Amino acid sequence: MPVIARRSGATLSDAAKQRIAALKPYPTIDTWRNPLTRPIARRLMNDAWRKTLGEIDFDYRTTAFDIDGVACTQFETAASSPDAPLIFYIHGGGFVAGSSELTAGNLLPLCQLSGCEGLGVDYSLLPEAQYPTQIDEVDKAYRALVEMAPTRKIILLSESTGAAIALAALMRWRHDGVVSPAGAIFLSPCIDGKGASDSHIANDRSDPVIRSMGGKYVRQLFSFYAPDAKPDDPAVSPIYGRFEDMPPFMIHVGGRTVLLGDAARLSEAARQAGVDVRLRVFDGMFHRFHMHWSLEETRSAHGDLAEFVKGV
Question: Which site among 30, 35, 78, 106 is 20 to 30 Å from 297 CA-CA?
Answer without folding.
Answer: 78
